Amino acid sequence: MESCVTDNYDPKFKIGDGGFSQVFFALHRKTCARVAIKMISKRDHNEDGKQLDRINREISILKSVKHPFISELFDVIETSENTYLIMEYIQNGTLLNSINENGPYNEEEAATIFAQLNLVLQYLQTNCKVAHRDIKAENIMFDAHHNIRLIDFGLSIQEKSIMNTQCGSPSYASPEMILGKPYGYASDIWSCGVLLFIMVVGHLPFEDVNITRLAQKILYQEVEYPTNLSDDLIDLLKKMLTKDPEERITLEGVINHKWVHDKVLYVQDKIKNFQYDDKYIFDKMLNIKSTDVYEYIGHGLVNQSTISYCIARREYMSNTIETMSKEEKKRLMHKQNAYKDIVALPRLLVPEKAKSGAKRKSLPNGTPNINVNTVFIRRKMPSVLVRNI
């Protein structure tokens, strides 16, 4: 990695390799905090000559969004070949990994996660006028306390005009997007409906290895709902997976739906009551003068002092906002008790099974995982492999 990056960050190893970027785990040299470095090539995927426009659009959106449940951008480093985005490192994997490893969530757990996602979308749509356009289980990650981070704004766009580009994962694509019709925020609502179905059932609502047949199912096939789901949950899913975007439930309707509304209020209250302790951040984490940093920020300056402050502040938030899932609290307590007698051992020496206290039931033997291999094509319908059926 280039010296302009390694001067301030210490890359350790690659943690992700997507269609348009590579992601590395690294340490910020000044604070020793963990960060993720997203390396985007300026030359690759530039057949249409618009790669730089896409990179700049993603950076612009990431700079404009600040929310507890959105992965934060700390720094941008430009070279002739690459753009490096220094991002918040989220340590507990993706929602997709969680479902594949532990099976579907119970409704209590799912509602907490879904409430957090709803608040993110409310912020994006209301405050930032942004459509994410790539909501899927791979793009929901968990921090140390199992609170979410929405990641990957590479396909996001500010809804200043009518959107009509087919993009994202086809398994989550709305009917209007598949048909090439103009679409708006309602398309993200559809994707969230697909995501919620996956969370509580364990597989996609529409599945086919053939992209044409998959599109036909999304357009014309009705979803089959397991009988073990509550009536309220089925009602919400049906309203989110309504084919006609004009009749589909709005985000406000989702937030106020009785299946999730209490959880939304609970999560909102947790966020509202959270407060940063800047004295602790400066004294214990940074060892730099707060007056200098505040002055830099006041003048809109970005330097290693302000970047260090943002990184430390985010780390403080991530470590301080408690787990919001009751089941996850039980799991963490079980995990802590399991470590009482082995705290002197290196963490990696503890077998994976000893670290698991998940309360969810695993999927039956032979049930295929949801496949994570997604190919993004921006100008036509992308292809995706799903579980074997």
TrEMBL record:
Residues in cross-link Glycyl lysine isopeptide (Lys-Gly) (interchain with G-Cter in SUMO2): K136
Active site (record annotation): D134
Root EC class: transferase
EC number in record: 2.7.11.1
Positions of transmembrane segments: none
Domain Protein kinase span(s) in chain numbering: 9-260
Catalytic activity: L-threonyl-[protein] + ATP = O-phospho-L-threonyl-[protein] + ADP + H(+); L-seryl-[protein] + ATP = O-phospho-L-seryl-[protein] + ADP + H(+)
Gene Ontology MF terms in the entry: ATP binding; protein serine/threonine kinase activity
Chain sites annotated for binding ATP: K38, E138, N139, D152
SUPFAM superfamilies hit by this protein: Protein kinase-like (PK-like)
Alphabetical keyword list: ATP-binding, Kinase, Nucleotide-binding, Serine/threonine-protein kinase, Transferase
PANTHER family linked: SERINE/THREONINE-PROTEIN KINASE IAL-RELATED
Protein family: Belongs to the protein kinase superfamily.
Protein name: non-specific serine/threonine protein kinase
Organism: Trichomonas vaginalis (strain ATCC PRA-98 / G3)
